[in-house]
Inverse folding.
């Protein structure tokens, strides 16, 4: 039950070997037929379609003879769409819901019987996500290795052995890279491409200038990891300052010879990027808000995607668009403009992924109405949309010549395409069970997850008819161009201690993003911009000493160059009084710059969190980011105390004149006193002075009212320096952690007793120190920040 992370740069280097490199080169895209599993929630070809036949048309959720209900499992209930691979079903669900121990878990069950085989539990921590939105994402399976990968709502990301559930590696995406986990709960889905696993989120990292890739400014960014080791291969982003977090499942397809990810982004655009390198291929402005719909892509490269928000032009809501995904660099190599074929406005298709079948697009609106469009022209074929229910969140699946779908309210329907649209084959009521997941098909069985259970639908006949079913694996495009035009230095981002070494590898790609080979170090010219040095074999050594710093590792081969980023952070203790003359916050802090600025007053220097943040050049400021978290170092730090002086300022009342939307955070108590909230982070726990609520609070999951926590009302005054102290003592042997916090006016003596404390029986045993703050109401200041080991 206690949580500890397994990944470290050193362990990653030990794992890498020529054998692993050889295995990684064996792509699952072998061109051979594979079992009719469902390793991705949108299906093996990312289109919601199955080749299986002889499936049942009708079933009865009550069960019994003739019901076609093979099994029902309440233990697998939730909102996540499951996957099936090699006879096992995998899903994400809440663990011990509505208790002080609640978390999230990956569950593996026998796909034929529903028997639970193993579980992998992890905490939800440092997140605003409500408990009802846990399990938003879906597990992805790797048929090549049998491993499964999962992204939790808070940013925990893991690789598990599919047979045993053994943890292979994990990453803390929020602490390491600045993943944004909001009250809305929207979480993305991982994708397997060759020897990598790729996921995405709105990321606010470290580095606020082009030299450091502007990572301190938010963007919807994709992160590609070595699927065997968890080492970061590349990171690629869309437009800066997106309006929303989103959950558009990427489609992994081939476009004009490029193996590409096609997806809707938080910036309101549809994008295509190379799956091997992250290089953008094209983008199409679709909405003024984020795009959540999973696209469907036809074999000729035509992309169909929609949304149900504001359009870029006019005042109509929603649209469905067809794009020519093959028009990569149509006008010139740097041309990223997506090519529209047709667009249908006022189609509120923003949640349920469309199907593409026999030249038709079957699209279901947010209000559960299905319209059939001619894929070539966009013309509606059915005169009246078919009614599936009242609200639609999940996506339909096409199999056995039929469309299976379930509305959010639990109305299950089966449809058969006709000349004029569709006709209903069957309808079943799940008696109000809430449905956010999508049905899937594997080995003669249909699986459907609701808030109350996971249903397995089928018959002995349907299972037997599909016993030998298989789907052709996509064939890798032949590598005709052997010229090196793209270079990838691995890892792209590293966190080191002073004096620590990092071995680099250089991977070579052609213009279409196809991997050619790994470069021989003797042919690569290595260099360093910043402190430290690198050998001709590509081994970087950080400088010794106690100073935090940053560097770029440079490489060049055949005139093509690449860069990798390094943070150098010394072991604790740390002490920051901000009197060293620095004009900005430390560059090494994840989510630090832009969100915090240096201030001076009364001859003293300190941090300030502004009420407005800059956006794009020439654009107004925004409230987005005024509620945020910041991390100072490694998520592997443990058994330490964080202390700082914090001063709350009083707001002028009401919101400022920003044109930007308010942050996506949990609601606060209305108060005539406009005070901010500010606090300390230690090992996944937060100690915060909540200004609007006039209380001090200690917690790991702020929106969960039953998860282990403590709170105390107190009169918080503006313009008073308070000293906060947060200590976390892990007890691995007892599977607990002792979490203690105190606050007092800085001008007074430190009290002997802790203000708040608890013993967490589902503990975080380690994590990065940092700061939490919500300054949308007013600024707050931070001074004399220290991190010290516990005695």
């Amino acid at each position: 039950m206690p949580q500890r992370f397994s990944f470290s740069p050193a362990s990653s280097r030990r794992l890498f070997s020529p054998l692993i490199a050889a295995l990684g080169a064996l792509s699952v895209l072998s061109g051979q037929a594979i079992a009719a599993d469902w390793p991705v929630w949108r299906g093996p070809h990312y289109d919601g379609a199955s080749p299986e036949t002889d499936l049942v048309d009708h079933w009865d959720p009550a069960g019994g003879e003739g019901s076609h209900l093979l099994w029902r499992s309440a233990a697998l209930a939730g909102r996540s769409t499951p996957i099936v691979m090699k006879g096992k079903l995998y899903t994400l669900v809440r663990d011990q819901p509505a208790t002080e121990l609640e978390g999230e878990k990956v569950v593996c069950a026998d796909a034929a019987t529903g028997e639970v085989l193993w579980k992998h539990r992890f905490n939800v921590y440092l997140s605003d996500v409500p408990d009802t939105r846990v399990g938003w994402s879906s597990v992805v399976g790797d048929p090549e290795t049998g491993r499964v990968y999962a992204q939790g709502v808070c940013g925990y990301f893991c690789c598990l052995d599919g047979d045993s559930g053994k943890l292979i590696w994990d990453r803390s995406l929020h602490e390491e890279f600045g993943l944004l986990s909001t009250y809305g709960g929207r979480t993305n889905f991982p994708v397997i491409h060759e020897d990598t696993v790729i996921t995405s989120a709105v990321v606010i990292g470290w580095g606020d200038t082009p030299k450091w890739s502007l990572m301190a400014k938010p963007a919807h960014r994709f992160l590609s990891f070595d699927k065997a080791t968890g080492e970061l291969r590349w990171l690629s982003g869309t437009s800066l300052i997106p309006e929303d977090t989103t959950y558009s499942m990427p489609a992994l397809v081939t476009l004009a010879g490029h193996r590409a990810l096609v997806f809707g982004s938080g910036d309101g655009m549809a994008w295509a990027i190379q799956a091997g390198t992250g290089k953008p291929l094209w983008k199409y402005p679709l909405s003024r808000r984020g795009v959540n719909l999973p696209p469907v892509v036809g074999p000729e490269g035509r992309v169909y995607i929609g949304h149900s928000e504001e359009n870029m032009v006019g005042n109509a809501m929603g649209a469905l668009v067809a794009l020519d995904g093959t028009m990569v660099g149509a006008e010139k190599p740097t041309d990223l403009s997506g090519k529209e074929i047709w667009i249908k406005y006022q189609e509120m298709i923003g949640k349920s992924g469309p199907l593409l079948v026999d030249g038709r697009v079957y699209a279901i609106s947010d209000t559960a109405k299905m319209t059939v469009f001619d894929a070539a022209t966009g013309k509606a074929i059915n005169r009246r949309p078919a009614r599936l229910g009242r609200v639609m969140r999940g996506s339909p699946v096409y199999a056995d010549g039929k469309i299976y779908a379930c509305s959010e309210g639990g109305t299950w329907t089966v449809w058969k395409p006709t000349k004029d649209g569709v006709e209903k084959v069957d309808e079943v009521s799940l008696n109000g069970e809430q449905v956010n997941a999508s049905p899937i098909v594997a080995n003669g069985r249909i699986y459907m997850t609701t808030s109350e259970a996971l249903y397995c639908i089928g018959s002995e006949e349907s299972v037997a008819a599909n016993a030998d079913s298989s789907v052709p694996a996509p064939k890798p495009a032949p590598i005709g161009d052997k010229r090196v035009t793209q270079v990838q230095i691995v890892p792209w981002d590293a966190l080191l201690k002073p004096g620590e070494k990092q071995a680099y590898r250089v991977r070579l790609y052609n213009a279409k993003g196809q991997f050619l080979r790994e470069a021989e170090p003797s042919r690569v010219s290595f260099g360093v911009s910043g402190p430290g040095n690198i050998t001709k074999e590509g081994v970087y050594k950080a400088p010794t000493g106690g100073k935090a710093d940053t560097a770029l590792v440079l490489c060049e081969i055949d005139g093509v160059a690449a860069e990798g980023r390094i943070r150098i952070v010394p072991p604790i203790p740390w002490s920051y009084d901000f009197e060293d003359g620095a004009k900005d916050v430390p560059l090494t802090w994840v989510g630090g710059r832009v969100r915090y600025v240096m201030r001076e007053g009364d001859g003293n220097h300190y941090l300030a969190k502004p009420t407005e943040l800059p956006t794009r050049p020439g654009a107004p400021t925004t409230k987005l980011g005024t509620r945020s978290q910041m991390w100072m170092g490694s998520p592997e730090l443990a058994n330490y105390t964080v202390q700082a002086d914090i001063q709350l300022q009083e707001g002028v009342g009401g919101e400022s004149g920003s044109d930007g939307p308010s942050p996506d955070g949990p609601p606060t108590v209305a108060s005539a006193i406009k005070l901010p909230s500010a606090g300390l982070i230690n090992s996944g726990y937060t100690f915060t002075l909540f200004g609007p609520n006039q209380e001090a609070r200690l917690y790991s999951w702020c929106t969960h009212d039953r998860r282990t926590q403590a709170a105390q009302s107190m009169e918080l005054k503006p313009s008073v320096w308070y000293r906060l102290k947060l200590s976390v003592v892990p007890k691995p042997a007892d599977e607990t952690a002792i979490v203690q916090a105190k606050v007092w006016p800085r001008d007074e003596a430190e009290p002997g007793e802790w203000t708040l404390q608890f013993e967490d029986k589902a503990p975080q045993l380690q994590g990065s120190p940092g700061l939490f703050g919500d300054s949308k109401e007013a600024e707050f200041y931070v001074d004399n920040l220290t991190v010290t080991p516990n005695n």
User: Anything to note?
Assistant: The radius of gyration is 26 Å. The chain has four helices and 58 strands.
